[in-house]
Amino acid sequence: MIKFTPFESQIVPMPMDNIDTDQIIPARFLKTISKDGLGDQLFCDWRYDAAGTPKPDFILNQDWAKQCQILVAGDNFGCGSSREHAPWALTQYGFRAVVSTSFADIFKSNALKNSLVPVVVDSATHQKLMALPRDAKVALDLAAQTLTLPDGTAIQFPVDAFSKYLLLEGVDELGYILQQDDAIKAYEAGRASTLNTLAA
Amino acid sequence: MPKTIIEKLWDSHVVSEKEGAPALLYIDLHLVHEVTSPQAFAGLRTRGLKVRRPDLTFATTDHSTPTTPKNLPIIDPIAAAQVKQLETNAAEFGIPLYGFHSDKQGIVHVIGPENGLTQPGMTVVCGDSHTATHGAFGALAFGIGTSEVEMVLATQCLPQRKSKTFEVRVDGTLRPGVAAKDIILALCAKVGIGGGTGSVFEYRGSAISALSMEERMTVCNMSIEAGARAGLVAPDDATFEYLAGRKYSPQGAAWDAAVARWKTLPTDEGATYDQSVTIDASTLEPMITFGTNPGMGMAISGAVPDPANVADPIERESLRKALEYMALTPGKPLAGQPIDVVFVGSCTNSRISDLRAAASVLKGRKVNSQVRMMVVPGSQPIKRQAEAEGLDRIFRDAGAEWREAGCSMCIAMNGDQLTPGQYSVSTSNRNFEGRQGKGGRTFLASPQTAAASAIMGRVTDVRTLLG
């Protein structure tokens, strides 16, 4: 994992509640056995017409949006399936943060494992972000847990301390669990008679 | 201090808890399918890791598998490669697999309970958001992402933060024509698609106790559609009766010890929840969704809501956009809306009692000539059971398709899908845009409502067909 560093970017506003994982990445692209190549399919059914041509009015097809690293969406972003293909598609497109008033649990957990920061803000801040002029830039500093608006206002956002540590240090979560092998062994020893092993 | 079942399950699975870090939670059963696991196995190979507990892991193929006759090959080469990859991974890492050609193959959330793999008091995970289905047995069961699949394969553990406890109390007696599916659709409509975010539901009350295990699975299955990662029902005699004698259930003295342990799980008298909601089952009608998420549902006698009556601008726009996608008129009843397809199946409603419910409505009747009806059993054993009972004859005689087991048109990865603009009444769990095929429009409902709608060729209140 790469260490998560501060950055500044224009934002892509998507003022819709409950954007679900089937919109972020439709199920038909989940037949892949790889993590790669999903960025082009991000929001596929909103982004392309039946012939596969980009729809010019969809925001991600507009030239100015192509370099944006922050998506600002409505409430309960990422609801639906547990597919990690959703954060894979978002990060492969180039997003490093999604800002919303709330996130679905599994999406949030998956995002944090892929260096995609889910930023929760209150509705007043959310409205301010949605109303920003297109060329306005917002700065995201994970260490400080701040989102800084063009007028200099720094908005604090919550991040789980453990996830923050992993992201900032580029530490791998599986490595962290593997280090606790002794505790896992001790737990298993205590559960020896109550684990339903399938061994015939 | 009195505890809820949710807290008891949590406490008994904490491996370690360190300051500033989430608890490490032990996983008793890890279910694996072909879609969300290949990248996790690839990760194990890269790191040179083994599966820590293949004996607590079980795999099946369901999402991308065709539901056409089994003697036909998987035509889609990408799906075929994915199914093959799971076979390779299971063999290499020593994981039991009910593969594509197994006579026990089926939807992952159907075969777990069917084989007694799912038991009270367990933690159960799967790379699938409908893992809450297993909560029907008094297990803490939740969906995980592929990174987490890799963690559980390697360590049998997951770092987790404790969820809030959310009591869903359902009392009263369901009226004729009203099903378990209607309870959960009513909950989704009541609390909204994000209402349970951060929480685990405990379903309780007289209406829940009265449900069969299969009905409880239907309710728990859609917990995620109300935002909760998990939902469960405390085990009782119905649970023990269901599990007794199943392939992986404990036997003999081990069974008695297990039942004694399971009986300590229900929520203690006086335990409190972070949040509560109540539903009166006796007032419920058959439910149907009108929009593009499962929270956009209503009683079948209701009218499509009008965005003009919604105060919040983003909510108003979401509803307007949903109705535009669905091509529905605000203020108009949904009953009577012509439909093209009826799908009976999915991890929500593909068990034998679901098939019986649909068949009981269809018996002696015909599927409307304008409608394609697909019936997809949840597993191969359910398919055989239905055939032994003659249900397949009822479906075929009515003009419905009787297919092989799998997720099928719930997720539309396997070629079973709507064409753009088509309307379906579906017993599945999601009505998101394009969920059942690009441009397809889904009304979620119970098997009874689906069967009634198939006969009439339009959205139909099943109570109008009951004798």
Order of helices and strands of chain A: EEHHEHEHEHEEEHHH
What is the percent of helical residues of chain A? Answer: 25-40%
Ends distance of chain B: 52 Å
Structural class determined from secondary elements of chain B:
alpha/beta
Q: How much β-strand is present in the residues of chain B?
A: 15-25%
Mean pLDDT of chain A, nearest integer? 95
Radius of gyration of chain B: 21 Å
Number of strands of chain A: 8
Quaternary state, please?
Answer: heterodimer
Identify the most extensive interface between protein chains.
A-B, 60 and 83 residues
Spatial order of the strands forming the largest sheet of chain B: 5-4-3-6-7
Uncertain residue ranges of chain A: none
Tell me about the largest β-sheet of chain B.
Answer: 5 strands, parallel
Structure description:
Chain A has 200 residues and is an alpha/beta fold. Chain A is 29% helix and 14% strand. In chain A, strand 3 (70-73), helix 3 and strand 4 form a beta-alpha-beta unit. Chain B is of the alpha/beta class and 467 residues long. Chain B contains 15 helices and 19 strands. In chain B, strands 5-4-3-6-7 form a five-stranded parallel sheet, with helices on both faces. Chain B has a five-stranded parallel sheet with strand order 17-16-15-18-19. Chain B has a four-stranded parallel sheet with strand order 11-10-9-12. At the A-B interface, helix 4, helix 6, helix 7 and helix 8 of A face helix 2, helix 3, helix 5, strand 8 and helix 11 of B.
Keywords:
heterodimer; A: 200 residues; alpha/beta; B: 467 residues; 5-stranded parallel β-sheet; 16% strand; globular
Q: Could you give a quick summary of the protein structure above?
A:
The complex is a heterodimer of chains A (200) and B (467). With 200 residues, chain A is an alpha/beta fold. Chain A has helices at 21-24, 44-47, 85-93, 105-112, 123-130, 161-169, 173-178, 181-190, and strands at 7-9, 11-14, 70-73, 97-100, 117-120, 138-141, 146-148, 154-156.
